[in-house]
C-alpha cells in the first residue's frame, strides 16, 4: 500500500497551506470545503455494518451476529468487498450531484467488534459474538474486503469500534465507569482490536462513550496513546463516538468546560470529532489548553486517510456504475450469506419439508411478514425485500396452500386501540388447525432491541433486554398454537440469545434466523424445503433458566461466555445442526509438516497444523464448520473451559471423505496473567477438533464427540 508515506507527505504539504481556523474546521466530522485550496467538503460519518447504511438503496445483508454464525473468513471478505463496491458507486454518484452530506463518504464506521459479553445488551447483534478470536478473525477479513487490495489506494476506509469494553447497559453508556481487570482486558476485551489493527490494517478506530478504569475512552491516554498507537503501531485516524466528548464534562465530570473536553480529546489523539466539541478548539487554543502543533498533527492524519482514499486523485473505482447498487448479482450473494447464517437448533426429523406430502402450510407470527425484522439496525434500504411469508409462498407456488396470521403484535396485546386483548389469537389457532405444518415466526426487531436513543417504543431498558424471555404476548401465542398439536417449526428472529427452554421439547424444529437481511424469506424457504442444508453455528451462548447471569454492569468475565460459563447452557457456543452428518474421523498434529503426535514441540518456533479427515455419512451434500478448541492443563491463568483457536467452513458431498489442514496460531498457547502479561505458561495442551465445542451439552444435543490431540511444549 502507498504509500502511506506518500499520502502523509501530500497531507503535510496541503495542511501547511491552511491557517489555524481551516485546520481546526477539518477535524469536524462534517468538514467544510476550503475553496482556495480546492478541498471539497467531506462528511466522515458513514455506516456499513451489514451494507451501506442510511443513504438510500443498498444491499441489506444479515446483521453482523448472523454473518458471524457462518464462521467463514472468505465470505466476510466478500461481504466487505460488495459493500465497498456499492459505497464507491454511491459516493461518486452523489459527488457528481454536488451532494457531500452525511452517510455519503468513503469512511465507514464499521465493524463493531465489541465483545458480546452479556445477552441482554441491545447492540449485541452489531457484533461478531462472544469470542475474541472469532471476532478478531472475522473483523480483520471484513476490513480487508472493505479496504481492498490495491497497492495505491483504499477502496474504502474501515473503522473498528468502540474501543474499549463498551457493551451495555445502554442507559448508562454516557456515564458508566467500566472497571476491568488487566487480565480480562488483555484476554477478552482488547484481542479483537489488536487483530484488526495488526492483521486487518484497519484505517480508522473509534472510542466508546464509557470510561474505562476512570479514563473516558475517547480521551484515554492508555487506550489511544499507550496501546493503539504505542503497542500496536496504529497509524490511521481516530474518531470519537457521536457526541461522546460532551460526556467528559456533562456526565463523566473529568473536565469542566467544552474547551477542556476538546483539549483532552485532542491531547490523547482524537483526530475527528463526531459531534460539536471541536467547535471549541480555537477557544482551547487561545486559553493555552492545546497547541497549534496538536491541531496540525490531527489534521495531517485526517488528510492522510483522504489521500489514501484517492479523494484528490483518480482511482480504480471511480467508474463503478451506479447499477451495481443492490444489483441481481449482489442480491443472490446476499441470499447465500443468509442461508449460511441460519442455525438449526433442533430437528426431530420434520425438516426438510416435502411439498408432495403437504396440502396446507400455516405461517403464523408477528415477524412472519415483517420487513423490519429482516434488516436490524444500521441498515440501508433494499430494492427487493422477501419476508418469511413471501419466501415460503414463492417456494411452494401453486403446489401447497399457504395460510397466514400474525397472531399478535411484537409486544402490544392488541392490534388496534378498539380491539380486545389478544385479538389475533383465535385466527392463529384457526390457521394452525387447518394446516399440515406450522411455521411460527416470533422474536424481536430493531424497535425493541438496539441502540439507546434509537428505540421507538420508549423502553426503560433503552434498547437492552430486561430478561431473556420473549414478550409475554408472543409466549401466549406460542402456547396456543402448540396446543393445536400440529407439527410446529419455531423460527426465531432476534439479534441475541432468547430463553427457548419452554419450547425445546415441544416444537418439532427450531431455527435461529437472526435478522437475516433483505433476502431472508427466500433463504429460509430453501432451508425449510431442503434445497439447502443449514450450516450456521452459534457465535454466542444461549442461556437457560438455570444459568444465573452476573450483574449487567459487572465487566468481569467470571461466568460469562462459553470460556467461563459455570453451568450447562441451553444451546452452546459453536452449536448448530445440519441435514447431513459430518463426522471427524481422524486427526494428526503436524509440526513443520511432519507428524508430531505425542512428540514434544516448541510451540513458539514450530509451525503447527492439524491434518483432519472428515466423512459425510449421509445422502445430503452439506456445509459444516470445523472447530478447534485449546485447553491449557497447567497454567493457573488459563481460561476456565476452552478457547476457540481455529475454524474452517467446509463443503462436503454425500458420503464423501475429505481431508483438510488447519493452522494453529501462536496465540492459542498464550495465557494472560493477573497483570495482563501474555506468555506461554505450561507445557501440556489439548486440542479438541470437531463440528462443535467439546462441552457436555453439545454432546447431549448432537450425540457426537470431538477428537482430541495432545501437545507437549518444550522451550
Explained architecture:
- The protein has 715 residues and is α/β, with parallel strands linked by helices.
- Among the domains are: 335-564, 3-Layer(aba) Sandwich (Rossmann fold), CATH 3.40.50.1700; 582-712, Immunoglobulin-like (Sandwich).
- It has 20 helices and 24 strands.
- The strands form seven sheets. It has a six-stranded mixed sheet with strand order 9-14-13-12-10-11, with helices on both faces. A four-stranded antiparallel sheet has the order 16-15-17-20, with no helix packed on it. A four-stranded antiparallel sheet has the order 19-18-23-24, with no helix packed on it.
- β21 and β22 (678-680) form a beta hairpin.
- The model has no long low-confidence stretch (mean pLDDT 95).
Pick out its properties.
single chain; 715 residues; alpha/beta; Rossmann fold; Immunoglobulin-like; six-stranded mixed β-sheet; four-stranded antiparallel β-sheet; 28% helix; 17% strand; globular
Topology:
Blueprint: H1 4-15, H2 20-25, E1 30-31, E2 42-43, H3 64-68, H4 73-96, H5 132-147, E3 159-163, E4 177-178, H6 182-189, H7 191-198, E5 204-207, E6 211-212, E7 215-216, H8 221-231, E8 237-239, H9 247-250, H10 258-268, H11 281-286, H12 292-308, H13 328-341, E9 343-347, E10 360-364, H14 372-375, H15 388-396, E11 401-405, H16 425-433, E12 437-443, H17 472-484, E13 488-493, E14 509-512, H18 520-528, H19 561-564, E15 582-591, E16 594-595, E17 608-616, E18 622-632, E19 643-652, E20 657-663, E21 670-672, E22 678-680, E23 684-690, H20 696-702, E24 707-712
Parallel strand pairs: 3-5, 4-6, 5-8, 10-11, 10-12, 12-13, 13-14
Antiparallel strand pairs: 1-2, 6-7, 9-14, 15-16, 15-17, 17-20, 18-19, 18-23, 21-22, 23-24
Helix pairs in contact: 1-12, 4-5, 5-7, 13-18, 15-18, 16-17
